[in-house]
């Protein structure tokens, strides 16, 4: 919760509103004035205990394994079944590549969901990191999304660089001017 960006309304209210009516008259406060939906109450604990009672020993072992379960969905936009190659980048900078064979598409040719358990927290996911598949649009292969520069913008930004002979000519002219 602390890492969430602050809402612009909250920022502006803090700047413009010095004191709220609820601060001036505390009788205006109600349940929702202090309610936090992420706070755990007795009922939540009771429901969680009931949930754990319904779990098998195997499910409890999975829950207590201390692993991160990374779920992702891949869509087959081109219609051709291909292997799914995924690279995870962990918090410590280490990377790991997972190669899932094309048979993953046998039940649903449009999209599949896969869960890969890891022992470290994943901060970045790259689909087809080595450009091995016939993916025409690689702009949607990243999480979090990466902004790519298209070829036209890259061409526009390219500064004209003089060839070596022209640079030598300019250099000689400047040297000649500096001596005189």
Would you spell out the secondary-structure blueprint of this structure?
Layout: H1 8-16, H2 21-24, H3 31-34, H4 42-53, H5 57-63, E1 68-75, E2 84-90, E3 95-100, E4 111-118, E5 122-127, E6 142-143, H6 151-157, H7 164-179
Antiparallel strand pairs: 1-4, 2-3, 2-5, 5-6
What is the helix/strand order?
A: HHHHHEEEEEEHH
Rg (CA only): 29 Å
The low-confidence parts are none
Question: Main sheet: which strands, in order across?
Answer: 3-2-5-6
Overall structural domain count? 1
Considering DSSP H and I runs of 4 or more, what fraction of the residues is helical? 25-40%
Number of helical segments with 4 or more residues: 7
Shape: flat
Number of E-type strands: 6
Mean pLDDT: 88
User: What structural category characterises the helix and strand content?
Assistant: alpha+beta
Percentage of β-strand residues = 15-25%
Distance between the termini: 68 Å
Largest sheet: 4 strands, antiparallel
């Amino acid at each position: 919760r602390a890492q969430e960006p602050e809402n612009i309304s909250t920022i502006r209210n803090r700047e413009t509103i010095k004191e709220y009516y609820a601060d001036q008259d505390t009788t205006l406060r109600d349940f929702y004035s202090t309610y936090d939906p992420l706070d755990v109450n007795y009922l939540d604990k009771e429901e969680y205990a009931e949930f754990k009672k319904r779990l098998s020993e195997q499910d409890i072992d999975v829950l207590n394994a201390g692993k991160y379960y990374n779920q992702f969905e891949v869509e087959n936009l081109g219609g051709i079944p291909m292997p799914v190659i995924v690279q995870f980048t962990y918090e410590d900078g280490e990377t790991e590549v997972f190669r899932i064979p094309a048979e993953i598409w046998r039940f649903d040719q449009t999209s599949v969901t896969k869960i890969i358990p890891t022992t470290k927290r994943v901060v970045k996911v790259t689909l087809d990191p080595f450009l091995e598949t016939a993916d025409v649009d690689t702009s949607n292969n990243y999480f979090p999304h990466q902004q790519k520069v298209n070829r036209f913008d890259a061409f526009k930004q390219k500064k004209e660089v003089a060839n070596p002979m022209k640079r030598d000519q300019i250099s000689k002219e400047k040297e000649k001017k500096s001596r005189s």
